[in-house]
Design a protein that fits this description.
alpha+beta; Beta-galactosidase, Chain A, domain 5; 8-stranded parallel beta barrel; 13 helices; 31% strand; globular; binds (2R,3S,4R,5S)-2-(hydroxymethyl)piperidine-3,4,5-triol
Length: 761
Amino acid sequence: MASFLPIMSPPMSAITCHEPTSTYFLQGAGSSYVLRVLPTGHLVHLHWGARLEPCAIDWFPLWGDRAFSPNPPGMREVGFTLDTLPQEAPAYGNGDYRAALVGARHADGSHVLDLRVVKREIRAGKPALEGLPATYVEDPAEATTLAITLLDKVAGLEIELLYTVFHGTDAIARSWRAVNRGGAALQLSRALSASVDLPRADWTMLQLSGAWARERQVVERPLAPGVSAVESRRGTSSHQHNPFIALCAPGAGEEHGEVLAMNLVYSGNFLAQAEVDQFGSTRLQIGINPLEFAWELAPGGSFQAPEAVLVRSGEGLGGMSRTFHRLYRSRLVRGPFRDAPRPVLINNWEATYFKFDTDKLLALAKAGKEVGCDLCVLDDGWFGKREDDRSGLGDWTRVNQAKLPGGLKRLAEGVNALGMRFGLWFEPEMVSPDSDLYREHPDWCFHVPGRPRTEGRSQLVLDLGRAEVRERIWADMSSVLRSAPIGFVKWDMNRHLTEVWSPALPPARQGEAAHRFTLGVYDLLERMHREFPDVLVEGCSGGGGRFDPGMLFYHPYIWTSDNSDAIERLRIQHGTSMAYPLSSMDANISAVPNHQVHRRTPLATRAIVAFTGAFGYQLDLLTMTGDERAAMRRQTERWRQVRRVVQEGDLHRLVDPRGNRWAAWMSVTPERDEALVTCVRILTEANAGRLALRLRGLDPARTYRVRVTTTKELPSGSGATRHQEVESAFDASGAALMAVGLRADSPGDFVASTWHLTTLG
Ligand code: DGJ
């Protein structure tokens, strides 16, 4: 399945330089990003918005004398000050008092940087970033990169800024690499990835924030003078805030208006902020959180900043999301599973927790096979001393023979014999104090000598910045993966970092430890990707605690949240979809009453919500009735019919679950030959108006066969028989479906409908 049709075009049409004014136009499908090298060597930002054909923009005043805005030597007369200049690579200490992109502490303790352009070059394609995840191209003709090198002459610090335009999209990837060309060591103290100065302040900031089991809720707030920020200080991107920020222009909504967004391809501490200055300009930034960050650059040493993906939409949040989704599906996710249909899985976690044995798991797999699952995943508790979450992490080679007589091999082969793949859970970044690994190497976790070690879920975090720690974890993990036919790994991470200190680093370089941990995690994931290319890896961090573009580079999908309640999932999946495609969201049907919120929802509704992700099950099928299992069999059959459009389609969010009694969205294939519309009623309302769902993205000239499935609540009955699924079909033109819409009118709470559209002829 191909989900992306890259546009091949000659480099010069995507990035053009208006030579007389040294102005660069980075041209997207409907947008332009314009920057200019001033005669002084300063790199200024001119425009990020609607598409603009190359021209001179030297008439627009970029500066003027201002009280308390200092001037570089000799510049008072022309009123030049960095304090108000729109800059692409601002630094601190030279008269710009706003937040910097890059910061350094020199050998003499000073921190001033004066970065001026010394080189500029347009290159075909896009370079890979050493040791870091990043978007990529398969052919240099898919993208063009502008490389602009700036130099602080006094220190010899060189910063090469990279801007990649993906042809035919409105996405730009930004990153930079620092090289110390001077004779003395210095320390980078700030390494944000992108900074853009916008000439207005009337934006609404949109962030994706929440908590465990409540990830990525959409939060909006108007900007005010000063800094509006979200960040993670937890060592991972976190449940609390996502490394994403968007600014919405006045009047912008789901399908209309201008939105500018940044998403960081990084899984550690981050900062995303918008700073409104004294003159009503906004500086939008994203990058590694400067808190406790420092990186030593010896003479000749280099540092690679992570990549930020910048998206501009003139079609509201919907347009923004579709640009992110297309890019991530096709040029961030990698490997043989990128375009492959996501398997239907049965995972034993909520079915058994730690209480299982081979017989139980094989019975669960068999029941899974009967309802149409492709993959059986054994979750936590198969290794070491692990009867609960208090011990055993790190003892990966000690398979629990009491639970699994014959080991993983017998179990995996038993699952394979049913015609299913076998999958296994790991939490490679952790160690339990009660484990053989910890007893052998008590100094391998993050800790500060002489201080207590803070535990989270009774576990400690391994210092994966250290090569010897990574070697041991990888040796153990890879030997387990070779010991049995394992075709899937769930890679979990269940606590955040504390006492971040590493004996491998001298005191002055402890500011590197958190970033080195993230690089160490990436190194392990890269080994997984290279040495086990046929193993499908699912990301997880206590649900969706590390749902970020960095992780999507290593695995095509992520367990979206430990909250599997269908109604709660509406808001979680809605927020997640702002940046991340449906194909990246693992969505499972779980039991009722739901284990997280105790809500009872109809089985059909749980299925419809899980249809808007990568569909699977996480419940004890053996306790389900025959009727329920028959319904599940029909669900997996239906899922296979709609899987392509969910995985490859463009998303249109029709009704926002926030503040509405309904939620609805649809996916349409790029060819517009198929669409899936799903609608869930959250709470019913007496004497309510009927909801008209006006569809989007269809071909107005074609006729679609519309197959409807609706859940109806029956006056009597319980469990699976309390709700009945009613099916019907009709034909309608794309134009009418978009102008008039569909009627969603099932009575009752938590009921749901789907409309599967296919073109006729
Ligand atoms: C947290 C994950 O999100 C769950 O799905 C499960 O794998 C548990 N960890 C196991 O400890």
